[in-house]
Structure formats: C-alpha cells, structure tokens
Specification:
By secondary structure, this protein is α+β, with helices and mostly antiparallel strands. It has ten helices and 20 strands. The radius of gyration is 30 Å and the shape is elongated.
Length: 433
C-alpha cells in the first residue's frame, strides 16, 4: 500500500519551523496606526500604546486602547499562536497522548513520555511497554502469554553512545513529530488558520482550522486545539488522504489525538494496569552486551571493506552471503554454549521466538548463529528450527560456510551449503525462553 513518505523525509523537504504569527500587541498597534489621526507629540504613538506599558499610561490613552480593542474585535485568542511555542512548553512536562484512527484499531494507542526523565510508556493492541532509558531496560507485557519481558530498549545494544543519545532524543520527541510535520506543511503551502474559540476535552481552547485548497474549499485538512494561556496543544484532528495500490482506492482518513499534561506519570509497568502475577522473564544478558561491544568494531570494519568492493560480484558477499556474514543481532539474543560451539571454538548466539510474542501469526522458532572470533566474527553456521504444529511438522534449516575468502585482511563467506530436515519428532519450543 502506498501512503506517505517517511516523516523524516517530509520534514527535511518542508522544514520544521514556522515564523511566529503577529503578536497581540502588534495587532493592536497596526489597528491604532491605521485608524487614529496623527498626533503632534515628542513621543511616538506606538511607544505610548505598548501593551506592556498600558498600566503606566494616562487614563485617557488607556481608555483609547481598550476602545480600539473593543471596536475592532482584537483578542489574544484571535491571533494564532506560533506552533513552535507549543513544542518548547510541552517538552518541559509529562505528556500523555491518546491517538485514534476511525475504523483502524491498529492505529489506536496511548503513551506517556517524560523527556527530562528518559521515560516512555505505551499501551496498544500488541501489549504494554515501559521503557527507562536511564536503566537501559524495556519492560514489555504480552497479554497472550501473561508474561513481562525485560529487554534492551529497541536496538540499544547495536548503537554507539552518540547513536544512543540521538535515538533517545528521537523517541522522547515523538509527541512533537507530528506537530513539526504539520508546521512544515503549513509553512510550505503558506496556509493561514481560521481562528475561533471553543472547548475541547473540558478545556477552553483556541481552535485553528487549516484549509488546503486541493483538499476542500470549506472543510479543514487540520484542526488544532490550543490552550493559549498555557501554550499547550490539547489535541488535533487530521483528515489525510489515503491512496492505495489501486488509484480508485482513495479515501479520506480521520485521525484524532488528545493531549494531557499530568503532574506525574507511571513509575513502573504495573502502574499501567499490568497484572501483578504476570510471569517475569529477564532477557537482559550482560555477557552478550560485552561481547557485542567488541564484535561491533570488527563487523563495522568488515562492512566498510566490503563496500569498497561493491562492484565486484566475484569477491563481494551479496544477498544470501551478506545475510549469512552478518546476522541481524537483536535485543533478545543471548549467548549460550553447546557441543558444536565448544568443538569449533565458536560463539553461539541464540534467539527464541514464541508465536504470541510477535505481531504476525508466525510459528514459534529457535535461531542459532555461530560466529567465528578468529575470522572477524563472520557467522560460520546458522541453524533455524521452526516449531511443529498439529497440521505441520517441525523442521530445521542449517546454513554452513564451507569456503571463505579473504580481502584486505577481512574474512567473508565464499560458498554456503544449506540442508534441511523434518526429522525432529515432536519437537516443541513452548517450554523454552
């Protein structure tokens, strides 16, 4: 299906900031200058009519300002607040957001973020997560298995310190990504809001309706609900256009988000209504983390060397060979020792996958990668075992490097042999972790 370009690309193309709208006092001064006769005085009229100094003016001039406001209908709520001001204010607080798309439960979720504390919590149809970046841990509740998994946040183990900091900022800024995207579109298209006042989620708000001519001449493409005194976004409604593979499959979606700013937020995963009796499985393996710090350096150097020879298919590990050379190590991997790893001086990295742990209906499996520290951690052997079901046999696939090539001092697979078998009896992975 075709939808939008990645958000980051759109932001880069459109820009992320808006010039502030005219302030309240600037609007007053404009009205006064264009409707008041010129007065001969040693003081400039705009200096006298500054909103910040109204209380120091003579009663007559102060009255003139108030009359001007009343006659011309200028109000702080009638001047559109700059969206960049909202981001600055929201970033200082706990942020709660509930997001809903009509007729699409997969795009309905809620989360809590405290940027200054590096805390993120989320609840959606897949389960509940609580991430503490200070501890470098994610607690993930899987309702189907009634289990809390303790893992590394995202792919934290695969990142350098600079990447960790950058990605942490990206995640902590998630509530503002959509707002920044809206800012970019508004600035790029030169949209001006129709401003009114009203109520949203029990709050008095300024309502900004943005109309795109290619969308509708009367209906808004985006509506923002803004708490002007506190400079907070209380919510928005968005009507993006969805285009499917078939051009005829074009429709208007309706997204709605509600923001709140509590004094505090969840302190652990149990504060998100996760059962206290859920089984806890710790997948944080310090041994794997220490190993990966060393392994990553060798792997990165080998990849850079490989790119130098990217145009030579005779020496470049492509497709299957590339995937075999550098397994996709994830946060849920652990290091184990078995007979094969001991006999061949290899490091065995294991990942277990249970059907109810993942989003897609894929059977459970066990994945083993045997990497060779003597050959810049190239994966020498890969074993994939899929669990059997009542209607299907369990089966195993083994990929093994039978010949290597060495380029500029780095090792790469040259020949890989694959074999598979279903002779596993009643193999069952359900009891494994």
């Amino acid at each position: 299906m075709k939808n939008y370009e990645p958000l980051e690309q759109q932001l880069e193309a459109l820009g992320q900031t808006l010039e502030p709208e005219p302030s309240f006092e600037e609007l007053v001064m404009t009205r006064v200058r264009t409707t008041t006769p010129e007065v001969s005085s040693s003081f400039r009229i705009r200096r006298l009519i500054s909103i910040r100094t109204v209380k120091y003016l003579s009663p007559a001039i102060a009255a003139m300002v108030l009359i001007t406001i009343a006659i011309f209908g200028i109000s702080p709520h009638n001047s559109a607040i700059a969206l960049s001001d909202l981001v600055n204010t929201m970033h200082q607080r706990w942020v709660y957001m509930s997001h809903h798309e009509d007729n699409n439960p997969w795009n309905t979720y809620e989360f809590w973020i405290y940027a200054h504390g590096n805390i993120e919590a989320k609840r959606d149809r897949y389960g509940t997560t609580y991430t503490d970046l200070n501890q470098a841990k994610t607690y993930r509740y899987v309702p189907q298995a009634h289990t809390i998994l303790i893992e590394y946040p995202w792919s934290l183990i695969n990142e350098t310190p600079a990447e960790k900091e950058k990605n942490a900022k990206t995640v902590m800024n998630r509530p503002y990504k959509e707002l920044k995207f809206f800012q970019g579109v508004i600035k790029h298209l030169g949209l001006k809001p129709k401003v009114r006042t009203g109520k949203f989620n029990r709050h008095e708000v300024q309502i900004q309706d943005y109309i795109k001519k290619d969308f509708s001449d009367t209906k808004p493409w985006l509506t923002l609900y803004i708490d002007v005194p506190k400079k907070l976004l209380r919510g928005y409604e968005h009507w993006p256009t969805f285009i499917g593979r078939d051009p005829k499959d074009t429709r208007i979606l309706h997204l709605e988000a509600v923001f709140d700013f509590p004094e505090t937020g969840p302190q652990n995963i149990y504060d998100l209504d996760v059962p206290q009796d859920a089984e806890v499985v710790n997948r944080v393996d310090p041994t794997f983390v220490d190993f990966w710090k060393t392994c990553r350096i060798a792997v990165d150097q080998a990849r850079k060397n490989w790119k130098v020879h990217g145009n030579d298919p005779a020496v470049t590990p492509r497709s299957k060979r590339a995937k075999m050379a550098w397994p996709n190590l994830e946060r849920s991997h652990t290091i184990i020792e078995d007979e094969y790893s001991r006999a061949n001086d290899l490091i065995c990295i294991e990942r277990l996958q249970k059907k109810e742990y993942i989003k897609m209906p894929i059977r459970s499996g066990r994945f083993l990668h045997y990497v060779d520290p003597a050959k810049n951690y190239v994966c020498h052997r890969r074993v994939t075992i899929w669990q059997g079901t009542p209607d299907d046999e369990a089966f195993m696939v083994v990929d093994e490097v039978t010949e290597y090539q060495q380029i500029n001092g780095f090792w790469y697979p040259l020949d890989i042999r694959t074999r598979s078998t279903t002779d596993l009896g009643t193999y069952d992975i359900n009891g494994l972790r």
